[in-house]
Design brief:
The protein has 384 residues and is an alpha/beta fold. It has two domains: 133 residues, Aspartate Aminotransferase, domain 1, CATH 3.90.1150; 238 residues, Type I PLP-dependent aspartate aminotransferase-like (Major domain) (Aspartate Aminotransferase, domain 2). The chain is built from 15 helices and 13 strands. The protein has a seven-stranded mixed β-sheet, with helices on both faces. Strand 3, helix 6 and strand 4 form a beta-alpha-beta unit. 46% of the residues are buried.
């Protein structure tokens, strides 16, 4: 068996979900909403399934969806993309990430990664033969550090993988962070693989800025988006990749031998969704921001230290002020004794560098959040 995968331990996500089931816990660990998703998009997918066609769609994606992706990014982010040569549809963002890494790096190439990171990144880099250079970001700000980046980048660097907004830290990287990273990419002739699945789930009047739009980055950036995150339809697994035509030719060949294509009815429905007007996106963000504030205020009232959450469906609590310095043990106690499942953020650091932060998902109904808060009760005060 391939050691990259055979030697992987059971993930903390699987462990916490199992414990949540065993103990009847309120599950704020798994990152999916209680809401079923927009009715009009689901209805469009159902109609397209019945009316067809249901045979292989084009490998690059339905023309209607590729055109919708290009138009969407032109309208929301000011990007000019050719839907024929610079847009591709994938079976989710993870497939897009895997295909891009297989297409763009060869054994021995160095890849700069930022921790905390999505747990698929490191195995995928290693499976492609890449050598990971990991830069740890530290709470509460999780900002990019110029000195650490300068040490990580070299003439051996082939690619940098950036998740912006960043899960699990709920960070939205700003202009200074992006400019710093763009400068290093141009200086070292590095491709930027940008996981931007949370690009629409940003709060407090902020706007996502794509790295692709910065000077010098248009021809060296692969941008990945996700209909599952935009429309709260995580089970659909419809992703989209945008890149310069030179890069896309190779990305398409990797995709061809991974999933080849994506269900056509889902593609048709996502094309409809991407055409929604700005008020829909504003309302979606406002709804999640309200849920964030509900959970954050409830945790604060109960004595927890809540870190800023500028984006995504997550917020974090710092358990060090409570005298805890082992987030795994804290989460195990939380789920087994108090009936609330959360995720230790150390799981997102390959070296476990940060062990005092715990992630909670707020993309839940009010009743679910309130039940979790009731169960946590005076936990913080008792610990103090």
């Amino acid at each position: 068996m391939n050691r990259v995968f055979a030697e992987l331990p059971t993930t903390v996500f699987e462990t916490m979900s199992r414990l949540a089931r065993e103990h009847g816990a309120v599950n704020l660990g798994q990152g999916f909403p209680d809401d079923p998703g927009p009715a009009d998009i689901r209805e469009a997918g159902a109609r397209a399934l019945i009316d067809g066609p249901n045979q292989y769609p084009p490998m690059m994606g339905l023309p209607a969806l590729r055109e919708a992706v290009a138009a969407h990014y032109a309208r929301h982010q000011g990007l000019a993309l050719d839907p024929e040569t610079e847009v591709m549809v994938t079976s989710g963002a993870t497939e897009a990430l895997a295909g891009a890494l297989l297409a763009l790096i060869e054994p021995g190439d160095e890849v700069v990664l930022f921790a905390p990171m999505y747990d698929a990144y490191l195995p995928l880099v290693r499976r492609a033969g890449g050598v990971a250079r990991i830069v740890n970001l530290t709470p509460p700000a999780f900002r990019l550090d110029a000195a650490a980046l300068a040490e990580a980048f070299s003439d051996r660097t082939k690619l940098v993988l950036l998740n912006n907004p960043l899960n699990p830290s709920a960070t939205l990287f700003g202009p200074d962070d992006l400019a710093l990273l763009a400068t290093l990419c141009c200086r070292h002739d590095v491709v930027a693989l940008c996981d931007e699945v949370w690009e629409h789930v940003v709060f407090d009047g902020a706007r996502h800025v794509p790295l692709m739009g910065l000077p010098g980055m248009r021809e060296r950036t692969v941008k990945i988006g996700s209909a599952g995150k935009i429309f709260s339809l995580t089970g659909w697994k419809v992703g989209f990749v945008t890149a310069d035509a030179r890069l896309m030719r190779v990305l398409a060949k990797a995709h061809q031998f991974l999933t080849f294509t994506t269900p056509p009815n889902l593609q048709a429905a996502v094309a409809l969704g991407l055409g929604k007007e700005e008020p829909w996106f504003a309302a979606m963000r406002a709804g999640y921001a309200r849920s964030r504030d509900r959970l954050a205020s409830g945790l604060t009232e109960r004595g927890f230290t809540v870190l800023p959450a500028a984006a995504t469906w997550f917020l974090n609590i710092d358990i060090a002020p409570l005298g805890h310095h082992d987030d795994v043990a804290f989460c195990e106690t939380l789920v087994t004794r108090h009936g609330v499942a959360a995720i230790p953020v150390s799981a997102f650091y390959p070296d476990g560098a940060v062990r005092h932060v715990v992630r909670l998902c707020f993309a839940k109904a009010d009743a679910t959040l309130d039940a979790a808060l009731d169960r946590m009760g005076d936990l913080a005060r008792l610990a103090a």
